[in-house]
Amino acid sequence: xxxxxxxxxxxxxxxxxxxxxxxxxxxxxxxxxxxxxxxxxxxxxxxxxxxxxxxxxxxxxxxxxxxxxxxxxxxxxxxxxxxxxxxxxxxxxxxxxxxxxxxxxxxxxxxxxxxxxxxxxxxxxxxxxxxxxxxxxxxxxxxxxxxxxxxxxxxxxxxxxxxxxxxxxxxxxxxxxxxxxxxxxxxxxxxxxxxxxxxxxxxxxxxxxxxxxxxxxxxxxxxxxxxxxxxxxxxxxxxxxxxxxxxxxxxxxxxxxx
Length: 258
Prior knowledge:
The chain has 258 residues and is α/β, with parallel strands linked by helices. The protein has helices at residues 20-33, 47-57, 93-97, 112-115, 119-136, 157-160, 184-195, 199-205, 237-241; strands at 2-7, 11-12, 17-18, 40-43, 65-66, 76-78, 85-87, 140-143, 146-150, 177-182, 213-222, 225-235.
């Protein structure tokens, strides 16, 4: 199984849609997506995500489902230093590194900044929603803090005993591809849950550009036990090949894409 995450196009936040640039990005994305095999498609309810998906919806043979919890992870908190209300990510460097709990996959929610507001409730809703989707495909999470999913085995003990990881081509144990069109913040919240990494580390240390494609693949090294592993992150080849500059939106500086 592969989980495919698409960030919305260049955003017009004021009008909850795409800029003209974002519309061009979405058109180029559609040319890429129309060739994919997609088993299920889930969308954020926000306009900028819906408008990103529109150009390819008529080209793929799947009915999308809009999920409320796929909206942006835009929880507000009180900044411990300034006492002002702010978003729960994009910290100044020394403020981020000064809070050791941010780096812990369990204790990040116990940090002074995250204890207030609705961060834990929102994060739990994202994790629950994702796990419910995976359970519908027979991938049941071992427990909240162990990013292992139990399933009916897709390989035998004998097959599992053979080390195949250096082979150029390997068997696709589960050919289903699940696509999410959403936002950087909620995408990284889901990836944190799938990989056992604090989401604050992902929010602070990683960036994916508008309409970029991120892929996590299922690894089943033990029959009936699956973990998800990053295979591709923030890929924008459709923009580069289409001659469209990659947007810097969401990054504090210039985004170099090669």
